[in-house]
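Thread: Newbie trying to understand structure tokens

Hi all, I'm a second-year student working on a class project, and my supervisor (Dr. K.) asked me to get a predicted structure for one chain before our next meeting. I've only ever worked with sequences, so writing a 3D structure as a token string is new to me. If someone could post the tokens and maybe explain what I'm looking at, I'd be very grateful. Here's the chain:
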Amino acid sequence: MAAASMPNRAHADGATDALLSEHAIYRALGRGGEARRKAYRALFRGALDGEFVAALRAATNGGWALGDARFAQQIADAIGRRATKLAPGRPNRDRPDERRQLKLL
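---
Reply by user tm_fold:
Sure, no problem. This is what the structure looks like when written as tokens:
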């Protein structure tokens, strides 16, 4: 069995994995081992929303934060760089406010 699938087998089926320890969140899924494994398997029964999957892929592939603007700003502050994708296209040039311009004709 591939190494990447071993944590799933450990949490879902109770397979032994010397590299894996139970996290507090996993332990909170149930009072005993079988209850935890059953609750863990239930987490993966439903399909994810297509829009969420697309956003997750875009964020993962682009190295961007996935979340609201506040979260993205927190991530940007923590890592010291932009954490969201820029809008496509060239930025607009600075233009004077049209209300201030004198219209002669």
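A couple of things are worth pointing out once you decode it. The chain has five helices and no strands. The radius of gyration is 24 Å. Feel free to ask follow-ups in this thread.
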